[in-house]
Design brief:
The protein is α/β, with parallel strands linked by helices and about 170 residues long. The protein has five helices and nine strands. The longest helix is centred in the C-terminal third of the chain and has 13 residues.
């Protein structure tokens, strides 16, 4: 998937062109995306990590030189390097899991920007996901049990829940 971002500056007319490094995993996880993102975050201190699809079920592991290790799920793997994260509309957002991870990273003062149209995972999605996996018995899919699949399914059935659902149109949030 290609994600195009334009950076506008109101002081000049036109678009500021910025270099983008795109890291895509093609092996269903465990390709080292967290480590690679951390490396490029060191090389690009003014950058931003964009999570363009998936969601809070991710587990991007980064280990710093001093041995501190964190598995990033809601924040980009550049958080150790003080880079902000942009969470696109193609990601699911789970407030409960976000709060838990934020508490672990609060000393870093992580910054997260969330697209107003991203799908929100509720505790009902998590419970439904876990119950469904339990009923499969020997045919389990191997769900990580955080409601990601249930959120995707629910939003595909015209029961869409996003930040706009609670606040009205995105223009009301400006």
């Amino acid at each position: 998937m290609f994600y195009y971002i334009r950076f506008f500056n109101s002081d000049i007319s036109g678009i500021l062109v910025r270099k983008a490094i795109i890291i895509v995993g093609l092996g269903y996880g465990d390709e080292g995306k967290g480590l690679v993102t951390d490396y490029f975050s060191i090389q690009n201190p003014g950058g931003m990590v964009v999570r363009f699809n998936g969601g809070h079920q991710a587990g991007h592991t980064v280990v710093k030189n001093n041995g501190i290790r964190h598995i990033f799920s809601n924040f980009g793997s550049g958080t150790f390097r003080n880079l902000p994260t942009f969470w696109s509309s193609y990601c699911t957002f789970a407030p409960t899991f976000f709060i838990g991870e934020y508490a672990k990273l609060i000393h870093l003062r992580p910054r997260l920007f969330i697209d107003i149209d991203c799908s929100i995972t509720t505790h009902y999605d998590v419970l439904f996901n876990r119950a469904l996996e339990f009923t499969r018995g020997e045919q389990k899919l191997g769900s990580c049990g955080v409601g990601y699949g249930a959120t995707i399914d629910r939003n595909g059935e015209e029961c869409y829940l996003s930040p706009c659902t609670n606040f009205g149109s995105s223009s009301n949030l400006m």
